[in-house]
Write a structure and sequence with these properties.
Helices cover 53% and strands 18% of the residues. By secondary structure, it is of the alpha+beta class. The chain has a single domain, classed as Arc Repressor Mutant, subunit A. A 3-stranded antiparallel β-sheet has the order 1-3-2. Helix 1 packs across helix 3 and helix 2 packs across helix 3.
C-alpha cells in the first residue's frame, strides 16, 4: 500500500461512494487502497461539510458505521 495524500484519499472516497450506495469504513478503505485511519479522517471531514451522511447498521452481532453520499451531493452531481 503506497502512501497517499488525504486530498487524494478524499477524492477517491467520493468517487467510490458515487458508485456504491452504502459502505462501511473498512470496505471503503479497501476500495481506495488506503489505511483505515486515513479513510475515517476523510469521511469525518466529508460528513462535517455535508457531502456524506452516516447511519448505524447492524448486519452482524456488532454495530457498524455505514456511509453514503448525502442528498445535497447527489443533486450536485447530476447538474
Amino acid at each position: 500500500m503506497t502512501r497517499k495524500s488525504i486530498l487524494k484519499v478524499t477524492e477517491e472516497v467520493l468517487k467510490t461512494l458515487k458508485k456504491d450506495e452504502e459502505l462501511t469504513i473498512k470496505s471503503i478503505s479497501k476500495k481506495v487502497d488506503s489505511q483505515w485511519r486515513t479513510t475515517l479522517k476523510s469521511l469525518e471531514f466529508l460528513k462535517g461539510v455535508g457531502l456524506v451522511r452516516e447511519r448505524k447498521g447492524k448486519k452482524t452481532n456488532k454495530e457498524e458505521r455505514l456511509f453514503s453520499l448525502s442528498d445535497a451531493k447527489v443533486k450536485y452531481g447530476k447538474h
